[in-house]
Amino acid sequence: MKVLSGYEPATVLSFFEDICNIPHISYHEQELSDYCVKFAKERGLYCEQDELGNVIIVKEATPGYERVEPIIIQGHLDMVGDKVPECDIDMTKESVRVLVDGDYITADGTTLGGDNGIAVAYGLALLDADDISHPRLEVVLTVSEEVGLEGATAIDLSCCQAKRLINIDSEEEGVFTVGCAGGLRVDCRIPLEMTQKTGTVCEIRTTGFLGGHSGIEIDRGRANGNIMLGRFFLFLKQKMNFEILKMEGGVKDNVIPKNAKALFLVEDVSAINSIVEAFNQVLNIEYGASDPDARLELAVGDVDTREVLSATSKEKVLAVLNGMPNGVQTMSQDLKGLVETSLNMGVMSVDEEAITTVFSLRSSHESAKMHLAETLKQIAEVLGGEASYHGLYPGWPYARDSKLRELCIKNYKEQYGKEPVVEVIHAGLECGILSSKIEGLDCISMGPNMYDVHTPDERISISSIARMWEYLKAVLAEK
Ligand SMILES: [Zn+2]
């Protein structure tokens, strides 16, 4: 007996539970991909599966819909695997344990994979039904979305005839996403030289910084741990001599760094505590609203002779951390409140060889994103280093005219009796990449209510799944 049996919509939830019962975190989607292929074969549907595991399943138009424009229903096969520390599930091999809690489906101790198993479930339920009217339906299911949109980047869409695409990877019912930023990772590396110096060894580290997602939360104005250490050293430079031994901070290019630390030497230890305190006051004045608990903590060690950065190398490090751009660069003039271009110095390290910084760049405009990349490269080169570009993905520009958007808004008003929210986001979605593969592709992204995705608290609303199911059917039934 399935956990979700007895709940509606029955077919969608039945497929959803099947999907939950197959392990499918990123890079481990093969079994789920094969399950979709088997599903298609059993129903005699045209199906393509590539080496990565991306799947496309096609169902011809139902009678009377042969002349209606084909449509793609799209989602991703992989999920983020996160769990509470005490959970014993090996998410690469074992399935999650599905639970129902009131109106919510959740998983015991792990992420659920509603992001994006629900899109796969809707797709399969549409393909499975013989009582739903629709034009030619092309269900596109990608792998490795959560680790950098890899499946979408590699997929061949030449078997698709549709020039309309509904992506079901959004998380709030009644909010349609109609554009997103493109991205690029830029790695900068500037070689450094060392020399020997004697002094008191000190360590400074960040504490209480909130960090966050470099796309969605870049406009919160939160302090970047890497940059704040750089600023601390420039502050210190005005007051006393010091030498830098090494530094490190951040975990990922697209995460605003919370934790950063540095080892340094000072000649005169007597004033250092009060200087750190003065800096913390500055931090509190400027970031008290966005990061109320952010501060730097100092630990003072013993006098020692150590390898430290040469005078020129130290100046270069201060120039990188204080001079390279970071955070929101421009706001959109078209759409109020939308960040247009931003970057985040997500990872930084200073060792005996080099200072390395890894940035995540985002922009609604390809040209602005590339200009920012070239700016970083220019600064790195002037300082004797270099920059390299990785993981470039295109944005999804807001289309001033979109028939699909109008159709979706009309149907939404009919079913819900109110206007939907239509927005452009400053994070990446597969729609950007997919629309670069089909000339003139008209896209929209939507999804049922989900909460705390990518965490063990992830949950999805059953009643919202049911309303979206009715809504999707109504959109497909349009001629
Ligand atoms: Zn997703």
Describe this structure in words.
This protein has helices spanning 10-20, 30-42, 114-128, 150-154, 225-237, 272-287, 311-323, 366-382, 403-416, 430-435, 462-476, and strands spanning 46-49, 55-59, 71-76, 98-101, 104-107, 137-142, 164-167, 175-180, 182-191, 194-207, 212-213, 242-249, 255-256, 260-266, 295-309, 327-331, 339-350, 354-363, 386-393, 421-425, 442-445, 450-451, 459-461. With 479 residues, the chain is α+β, with helices and mostly antiparallel strands. The chain has two domains: 10-181 and 396-476, Aminopeptidase, CATH 3.40.630.10; 184-393, 2-Layer Sandwich (Alpha-Beta Plaits). The strands form five sheets. Strands 9, 10, 12, 14, 15, 16, 17, 18 and 19 form a nine-stranded antiparallel beta sheet that branches. It has a six-stranded mixed beta sheet with strand order 1-2-6-3-7-21. It has a four-stranded antiparallel beta sheet with strand order 4-5-23-22. Strand 17 and strand 18 form a beta hairpin. Helix 1 (10-20) packs across helix 3. It is elongated, with a radius of gyration of 26 Å. It starts with 9 loop residues before the first helix and ends with a helix. Zinc ion (ZN) binds at residues 76, 115-116, 145, 169.
